[in-house]
Design goal:
The longest helix is centred in the last third of the chain and has 16 residues. The protein is built from 4 helices and no strands. The protein is globular, with a radius of gyration of 22 Å. Helix 2 crosses helix 3. The chain has a domain of about 90 residues. The N terminus is likely disordered. The chain is about 35% helix and about 0% strand. By secondary structure, it is mainly alpha-helical.
Length: about 150
């Protein structure tokens, strides 16, 4: 198509494939050392005034990643990960305080940079299936003059 720009993806080249191999990990969802180094600083520190944190935070993240990647129920988490109640408590806490969103954003930016793209996209594509119009049940815009302001 004229005007279409295809960005070559360097991820699955023959030279690059071993870098993404997850065969040596316990589970494919487990973090590699490089992945852990990237997100470890984003994990909130232990709460003040409490006891020393006794759980391995990398294993907690591995547990969260296992549940998210497999879609399994919490009670079916493998026994070699931290207790499901611990992993679930951190998952809920991180969902509430924005930690998961922060981690997602950091990884999103890193992926875009690795693909030689700007960290923030500058364009989007909309089609007629993506946007509802007022005739099809979308919200009609209200002119400013009819808002009751004098």
């Amino acid at each position: 198509m004229p005007g279409t720009r295809f960005v070559s993806c360097r991820m699955w080249t023959t030279e690059n494939r071993p870098r993404y191999c997850r065969d040596k990990l316990r589970y494919p969802s487990d973090l590699t050392d490089a992945e852990w180094e990237h997100i470890a600083p984003l994990i909130p520190p232990a709460k003040r005034g409490g006891g020393k944190r006794r759980v391995n935070m990398r294993e907690v993240v591995n547990g969260v990643m296992y549940v998210l990647s497999t879609g399994c129920q919490w009670r079916y988490m493998p026994k070699d990960l931290p207790p499901r109640s611990t992993v679930n408590d951190y998952f809920c806490s991180w969902s509430y305080d924005g930690t998961l969103e922060t981690i997602h954003h950091a990884l999103y930016v890193k992926c875009r940079e690795q693909a030689d793209r700007e960290a923030n996209p500058t364009a989007c594509i909309l089609d007629s299936q993506s946007v509802k119009s007022a005739e099809k049940g979308g919200r009609a815009s209200i002119p400013m003059g009819s808002m009751g302001a004098s």
